[in-house]
Amino acid sequence: TVEMWDIPTGKVLEVIRVSSEPITHILLSRGNDELYLLAKNGQMSRWTRIRKAPVRFARHRGDIYDVKISRDGLVASAGVGREIYLWRASSGTMVRVLSGQKFVVDNIAFTPDGKWLCAASWDNTVRCYDLAVPDEGVLVHTFPERITELAISPDGQRLVVGDSSRTIYLFDLKTRALLKKVSLRAIPVVFAFTAKGDRLFIGGLEGMFCRYSMTSGQLEYSPKLPTKAVMTITMHRKEQRLLVGGAMSRLVWISPKTLEIQAGFDIPLKLARNCRVTAEGKELLCNAHGEGLMVMDLEREQLILKVQGDFGRALLRTSDRGLIVDYKNILWKLAYPGQKTSRADAEARQGMTLKGILLTPFN
Fold this sequence. Notes:
mainly beta
């Protein structure tokens, strides 16, 4: 690959995949619209800039820890470093950098209206940023131990934070007042609200899975799951059942009403860190940090394909029913299933194909 950088800003403008061999020499034309490349095997190639070429998000300095997208198409990404980057999904243009935290940020969440962004940092603090105001955000709370998860209710009124003290904290997002603390059997790892926001499902270490009522305050547990950690909770069939996974080579169906384990199926991953059901509800995509990405047929509970590669933690749905993943610390649109795309066509679009899936930049 060849990367093109903007010197004044330090942004990556293009990442060009041109050869399977190492590149030894490059020459850029005066108009910056053509690039001549010589590979180690002696092959010469020419790259021509496409009109209105899509802009790719700049590379993070290390792993991407969390990515979220607002309803109006603003993408927030947090990784190694204390900065949070805001991008416009339609163009890939960086809009703003938030740097109110003092240490690494690893959990972020937009309010439903997209006007605020809350972030948890390794300094045990949560800050919320008014995206219409250029400031360093408002400190919500400093927690006694490491923050493990954070989420905002669908109505935008409640902020829920979990930490390593086996506790979840409920805040009034408007006043930032602490409303309640709830003790758990294990450290929380993942939250999932129902669409109405009346129930919160919580997965954690030691195979913990439970349901918390946001109205009554009742906490109910399911039977302990056979895993060291529950890491992903996916709603399916209009919340009629939950698909739960984690540090195990298996996904299980759980009833959201009774919390009983109904069934399950094996997966070709040692862990499922993040899973998403496609818009049609027929297929499931799961990724495991550093292990790869898989696509499953949910109706048959069979593997469709597995792609090994340096996929990260990000896997989320966009408003146009697409999917976002991070591959080699760059954010991409993932197209699956779709029309067959040759490698040449994919590279002409500044994208790539990996064993049946198409990765393209935001455009």
